[in-house]
Amino acid sequence: MSDIEIRDDRAGGRLEAFAGDEVVGHIEYFVLEAPERALVPVHTIVEPAHEGKGIAGSLARELYGIAAREGIVVAPLCPYVVKWAARHPEEAPAADPELLGAAMAWLEAHPGRF
Asked: How much is the pTM?
């Protein structure tokens, strides 16, 4: 995995994994502002030729790392990130159910965004 670079495209709502100039995986997310600021991952995608290399896990770990550095939380709606967080509770604190509900409401209010 040392040849993978992860970059945050906040404006585009994507955390991307690069192998050279090629995007080999990404997490699509949005930033929720209320009831508190949170990163909300919606989809994790790894290109088929790069599956099984730990890219999705590295993306999830970095998303939680970004949130920790910014002093905010992650409210995962992406099934992969939910499972990853359950396996790594020391790195991925559980989100408040109210926050998860607010994230889901935001997503439903913005059809077509993801």
From this structure: 0.93
